[in-house]
Amino acid sequence: MTLAPPPFDPELAAALAATGQSSIATGITLDQLAVERANLAETVPTVTELATDATLRVEERTVPGAEDGPELELLVVRPRGRTDPRPVVYHTHGGGLIMGNNRYGLDPVLDFVRELDLVVVSVGYRLAPEHPFPAGTEDAYAGLRWLASDPAAVGGDGRIVLTGGSAGGSLAAALALLARDRGEVSVTGQLLMYPMLDDRNESVSARQMHGLGVWDRVSNETGWAAWLGGAAEVSPYAAPARATDLTGLPPAFLDAGSAETFRDEIVDYAQRLWAAGGDAELHVWPGAFHAFDFLAPQADLSQRARAARLHWLRRLLGD
What we know:
Blueprint: H1 10-18, E1 23-24, H2 33-41, H3 47-50, E2 56-63, E3 72-79, E4 86-92, H4 107-116, E5 119-123, H5 135-149, E6 156-165, H6 167-182, E7 189-193, H7 204-208, E8 213-214, H8 217-228, E9 252-257, H9 263-275, E10 280-285, H10 292-295, H11 300-317
Parallel strand pairs: 1-8, 4-5, 4-6, 6-7, 7-9, 9-10
Antiparallel strand pairs: 2-3, 3-5
């Protein structure tokens, strides 16, 4: 049965139409991946370009990686002119688990530096299908463990908030689970922007958005299949929606668009955090497609979403 999708917000629909495409990143299959990666790479700023912002201090650091893994490239962004230790936002990038690097999807995250004087540390991780789970997750965890061991090296005060959008939100949620279970790292909060949480891809919203909007059910299946690599059992550290125990996790912020593939799994994850006695704030933005604030940052809904994240961080950190 065909399920009618929710309508797009008119301002966001106009922004999507202005790209000259009726949808973005829909219907992706692995045989298209090289082209998709090349197209994405053209949109990612260089370190030099990021450093032209006079409000930011931008540097790259190479740190030890996971056992049997490569060294990690961290991008560190600090507020220029601020020298006292500040909380750190540890960012895992999006890209469907199959694309992207530590500079991808940074625009909404740099709000935290510009508006709140926080430090952002963004990690690169190995991508599927060349490196299926757990490679990328262990890379991200290794970077988090390094950061927690020496936060002063990047101007941090010891408080760490995990964040990421889309696939990066999946990794941020997985890192919260790993930090709880391994007991090596203390995490202050998890800010999950339209996170990609559930490999099963069977929700109503996934079916509604087939071939529509940004990152549809077909692309989602491609990303998850590559990430899981045909594993018979799916770990909650690979797909956080598989976690059966959500107790003892740090406070969470989650948001979603009403017209995106991940809507229902995000709402369900927030509900299960509450059921486990957790602290979670959930926003579902009416008429928003996936990654709406990244693609249309000046839209009213995008501005409201960004403001909500800043408000949550202020409350969480007491700033």
